Amino acid sequence: MVKASDLGLNPGDTINGFVSGVSQTAANVLTELYDQMPDSLAYTGSYTVDNNQVCRPNTPPIAVLTATPMSGTAPLDVLLDGSGSHDPDTAPPPDTIASYTFDFGDGSPAVTQSAPASTIHHTYTCSTSACDYPARLTVTDSRGAKSTNPAQVVIHVVGANATPTPTPTPNPLPCSGTTVEDNDPHIAYSNGWHSINNPSASAGHFRLNEGGNNIHNAVLTFSTSASQTGTIKYFYATSQKGGSAEVFVDGQDKGSVNYNGPSGSNRSPIFGASTIYNYGTQPNGQHTLEIRPIHDGVFIDGFCIGNATASGTPAAHPGTTSETNSNQSPGQESLTSITLPSGTQAISIAAESSVAVPIQLVLIAPSGAVLQTANSSTGVVVLEAPITQSGVYIIKEVNLSLGPVQVWSVATPLVSTQLVAQMSNGMTTGPSQGLSQDGPRSPILSDILFVICERVLASYG
Known about the structure:
The protein is mainly β. The protein folds into four domains: about 5-55, no CATH class; about 65-160, Immunoglobulins (Immunoglobulin-like, Sandwich); about 180-315, Galactose-binding domain-like (Jelly Rolls), CATH 2.60.120; about 320-415, Jelly Rolls. About 5% of the residues lie in helices and about 45% in strands. The protein is built from two helices and 34 strands. Strands 14, 17, 19, 20, 22 and 25 form a six-stranded antiparallel sheet that branches. A five-stranded mixed sheet has the order 6-12-11-8-9, with no helix packed on it. Strand 19 and strand 20 form a beta hairpin. The longest helix has 17 residues, at about 445-460. It is elongated and about 115 Å long.
């Protein structure tokens, strides 16, 4: 084997024919030359001499997309920026980004721009109350390789004619009778239910559960006369990430509900779906409707219970939901704090990325200790943990993918209803539920209550 340069050949030259042979040398003297072209064959055809760069591996470039702003009212002018894109082939001569292809996600034609034009403005509109558009970027390097990593941001656009979040009214849902909204205090929610504001929901908000696995139930208890039969109507939403749940009325399985739809996201689902369930007589007139999430997103907008009365008295209820939305580069961590009040029993945190990539959640206690870690490769990760002390907790989100993503997350504590009521209204001086009203409490019970009060007051000191 000889170098092309030893034969006087340079990149770009053409070889139109050659003779191959081998020489035998002894004592620095050429003694023989053997022709290696059998049967006097001659080479035909041609080759073009190229440089060693042709043999270099061509790793796909990495696309990085950001958007400013990521949300607003239509018409919304958004600057899409791909200037953070880069190519990992840095050995001389390094590869560079040659072009940027922007897909706006709203049905508009994609636009390809040659470098160095790495940014573009686009105006988003929305004909409904709210729209989500997944804008994507693909880049091509100087040797023709295209990016394969997901580079996407979701643009949230509020319709120009959308009304502000409505104030709940007596009958915001299409209901002939009593309406029960998702935030009604008679609904018993387990840990894992989040309150999300959305102007398209019946009262401007709805409940979302992302955990599934049949343990995050929601139970509505309602009362009728012992001889009454009737129906209850369940209003919910659907989305592309919607899942399913099993519904039980008075303990009887009424089948599953499918929350999966052709459009919408868990943050902005499509409202208007409903299912009607029949109930029979109960000796005490007490009825329950229970929703048991099975997998993925489950939604509650409200209920219509006719002439029945909501009567549940949950021992705990979801506290205030915290919501964040951020862009994260590959490997980037984002930290947010949440203050959990006294009486917090547990917390549920859910993070959803714009594309299905690995993400991680970490919950850090006020002491700095890591309480729990959760990982997922599907783009949705849920972390749930029991809480034994109040204070400021840290939630860490980590983008474990090779590309940038947009991450939307929610966090909601499950708080003792009785303790919160005492904190809000002071210690009750009248009869307490579950305690004897016929006379003074026993000395042991009084001591227990005194210790509880002391600890509650100490936590506020």
